[in-house]
Amino acid sequence: MRDCNYAYHRKGIDKLYDDKVAAKKAMYEALNKLSPIIQQRPNNVNVQNFLYGKFLEFKNVLSDSDVKEKTDFVNLLKKLDSGNSSRYAEIMN
Fold it and tell me: Is the residue at 22 inside a domain?
């Protein structure tokens, strides 16, 4: 969880101004680090809180992305936090 948090913010959010494409890729890779946690403990409260708090950030960052990139992010988010699948579907709009 700590690795994800660091990579997401330091390599993703902090780099958005300089290189959006690389920053979004780093954000995706950071979020993907949560997959093993979810496999071991589905509905992990820490992961859910992290993702719930970042929803608007995801939506804003991905607003100018192409459909494939949005789809990849949404599928990953749905896999990590299936309880909020309908919220993540809003990112596609």
Answer: no
Structure confidence by residue, pLDDT tens digits, 25-50: 999 999 999 999 999 998 899 999 99
The whole domain housing 81 covers 28-92
Q: How far apart are CA 36 and CA 23, in angstroms?
A: 22
Do 38 and 49 contact (CB within 8 A), yes or no?
no
**Is the residue at 18 inside a domain?**
no
Confidence (pTM): 0.91
Non-local (6+) Cβ contacts of 20 within 8 A are: 64
CA dihedral angle for residue 76, residue 35, residue 60, residue 86, rounded to 10 degrees? 50
